[in-house]
Amino acid sequence: MSDQINADFSQFVVVQTNDMEWQQSPTPGIWRKRLELLGEVESGHVTSLVRFDPGAKFPDHPHPDGEEILVLDGVFSDETGDYPAGSYVLNPEGTTHAPWSENGCTLFVKLQQYSGKDRPHVVIDTNNAEWQPGRMEGMEFLPLYSDPEPAKGITRLTRVPAGCDLGPDPHPGGEEVFVIEGCVEDEFGRHESGTWFRHPVGSEHNPTSPEGCLLYVKREHLG
Q1: pTM of the entire structure?
Q2: Dihedral over Cα of 168, 171, 174, 179: its sign
Q3: How many structural domains is the chain composed of?
Q4: What is the pLDDT of residues 173-208, one digit of tens each?
């Protein structure tokens, strides 16, 4: 289908979102950059960047198969509270809201990828959460969500110090990464802030970070 975007999960994909134009959504004042889309144009499995202009409000709507939000800048709001940059929110299946942003915001959003009405509502202030030591000196990670069904993956933020060489990094269940800050390099290129990439099941790469970086990472969910 012509509307599908990066819908073949067996393929390696890299998207430089800074090179993309914002596209108007059906709601005035709300814009998006779609990184992957599988299914219906307005109701399918989708990963995207979403921008709210100051004062923009989205109509009340449900979340079949849930919604995942990471606030990249500004303040995102809905009936449950105000979520500044660094907030991570999982809205489970069956929830509804009518979100807005008083002064504007930018979000990393995943829809239709959190199925099950027994899933929890998760809110994490990553700015004040307790980070854990990673597998390399100076590396840290912050768990965001680990699904009870292993095939649906784990989600975390990863902070990598400058000059770190992570060595071989296998992906038995696939991986996707959004570079929030800094830069990561591997044999596929230099991935600066704003880059989203997805590695298929069974792949491997050898990442380094000359300047250091902060990453959104989701793993083991493509098997």
Answers
A1: 0.95
A2: negative
A3: 2
A4: 999 999 999 999 999 999 999 999 999 999 999 999
